[in-house]
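From the methods appendix. Each design record in this collection lists the tokenized structure first, followed by the designed amino acid sequence. Records were kept in a plain field format so they could be parsed without special tools. The example shown here is representative of the layout used throughout.

RECORD:
FOLD TOKENS (139 positions):
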């Protein structure tokens, strides 16, 4: 796989309130709200809005002591992470570990939509939280 085939699976934006954020992203900008899903393990409500071949995910914390809740209290709303689609997440994790990249998840876990995901620590990426998302095998 050449690097040019790697896609941005989604952009994650931390918001205080999905309802309030939709006033801009849906009503103002004109994106379609496809669904809202709760990912209990991560303590987050996720609103999915397709944009081009990718999608925007508005992330609302279900409580203060969740990853998105802590992000909001430290830094306020804004761009939270970038998700990059990979064919084989286990192979990519092993490759990055071999290169000395610091991973938050050394084992994949289940994210929104049931996809396997793993986060890379911003200290290894120039300050951007990167989420690897394994390509859906049915698409
Ligand atoms: Zn994500």
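DESIGN:
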């Amino acid at each position: 796989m050449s690097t040019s085939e790697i896609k941005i699976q989604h952009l994650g934006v931390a918001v205080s309130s999905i309802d309030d954020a939709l006033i801009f992203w849906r009503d103002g900008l004109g994106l379609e709200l496809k669904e809202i899903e709760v990912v209990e393990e991560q303590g987050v409500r996720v609103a999915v809005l397709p944009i081009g071949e990718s999608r925007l995910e508005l992330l609302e914390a279900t409580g203060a002591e969740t990853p998105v809740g802590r992000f909001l209290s430290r830094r306020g709303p804004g761009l939270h992470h970038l998700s990059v689609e990979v064919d084989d997440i286990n192979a990519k994790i092993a490759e990055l570990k071999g290169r000395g990249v610091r991973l938050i998840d050394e084992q994949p876990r289940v994210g929104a939509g049931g996809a396997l995901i793993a986060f890379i620590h911003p200290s290894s990426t120039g300050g951007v939280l990167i989420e690897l998302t394994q390509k859906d095998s049915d698409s």
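APPENDIX NOTE: The chain has a mean pLDDT of 93.
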